[in-house]
Structure formats: structure tokens, C-alpha cells
Design goal:
single chain; alpha+beta; Nuclear Transport Factor 2, Chain: A; globular
Length: about 180
């Protein structure tokens, strides 16, 4: 393995981490720095092209996240969380990242993710990413996010609404008597 390939791999790991850490903290401007100017972001059946469109999407999601965590199934736990002085939160945890270096200017990666909110595990899925060199810096040029499942009534389920229902054939409802 050559040095440039190690740099590419570590840059990709860093970009994935910065995307999650900044997004979870509501630092949308810093999160957007991981994308190329003409990046494409896809989630559910939505497609956003360019940083301005991606910015608008995540600004809307961030606003909804702060308000909708109140409506999870176990609102007492969220109320208790807030009563102890805590703010609503999201934590994206990314793992099992497979990095494929295509060439000196292109890297592809796939990662699993899961999301924790005050009520616990909320939703999970996969990122399929393509990275490219932009002015000498690695950036995400295309991210396709797949939601594999979500807890019914959780933040991810509520914020996606009917779009998530179309994607998921069997969302998990732990409140239902049959958990098969």
C-alpha cells in the first residue's frame, strides 16, 4: 500500500466521523464541509443536488429533531431526560466501514449506522458513499443513505413519515404484543 492510499483511507474515515458528529450537534455548516460543492445526497426517495439543497434539507431535519423527540412512545423518559437539564439529542454511530480505493482521485465506502436518541435505539441503516479529491481535499461527492428499519413512533419514523413506510416493509413496533 502506498502513502497516498493511506491518506485517502484516513481522510474518508475522518469525513464520515465529521459528518455524524457535526450533524448530531446541529453544526450544519461544519457538517456541509465534508461535501463537494456539487455533491448529491439521497435518502428514502429524496435526492438533493448541490450544497445549497443539502443545507436546506438538513436545516429542516435539525429543526424537526428538536421538537419531535417529545412525541416518542415513552415520553416520560424524554421528559425525565430534559428535566435533568439535558437537551434533545441524536447520536449516529457508524461502523463496519468498508473502504475501496478506486484510484488516486476516487474512493468508495459503505458503512452501517445506527441512531440513538433519549429513548434508545431509534433507527438504523447503511451509507453508500463516493469520495473524490476537490482542490486537493477529499470530499463526499455522493451519499446514498438507506434506512433499513426504525422503531414505530421514534424520531426517525416520525420525521420520515409516509416516505419511511414506503421503504420499510416491517417497521419494528416494540409496543405491539407480537414481536416476531
Amino acid at each position: 500500500m502506498e502513502i497516498w492510499e493511506l491518506v485517502a483511507r484516513e481522510s474518508v474515515r475522518d469525513l464520515i466521523a465529521r459528518y455524524n458528529a457535526n450533524g448530531d450537534s446541529g453544526r450544519i455548516e461544519q457538517m456541509l464541509e465534508v461535501f463537494s460543492p456539487d455533491a448529491v445526497f439521497e435518502t428514502l426517495d429524496l435526492r438533493f443536488e448541490g450544497k445549497a439543497a443539502i443545507h436546506e434539507f438538513f436545516t429542516t431535519v435539525t429543526r424537526k429533531a428538536a421538537g419531535e423527540q417529545e412525541r416518542v412512545p415513552d415520553t416520560a423518559s424524554v421528559a425525565d431526560w430534559k428535566a435533568r437539564g439535558n437537551r434533545p439529542m441524536l447520536r449516529h454511530i457508524t461502523g463496519t466501514t468498508q473502504i475501496d480505493v478506486v484510484d488516486e482521485r476516487t474512493v468508495k465506502a459503505r458503512s452501517y449506522y445506527y441512531v440513538i436518541t433519549p429513548h434508545g435505539l431509534d433507527h438504523w441503516g447503511r451509507y453508500l458513499d463516493e469520495f473524490g479529491l476537490v482542490d486537493g481535499e477529499w470530499r463526499i461527492v455522493h451519499r446514498k443513505e438507506y434506512t433499513d428499519a426504525a422503531f414505530v413512533g421514534g424520531w426517525g419514523h416520525q420525521s420520515a413519515g409516509d416516505k419511511l413506510a414506503d421503504v420499510l416493509t416491517h417497521p419494528i413496533n416494540w409496543a405491539a404484543p407480537d414481536r416476531s
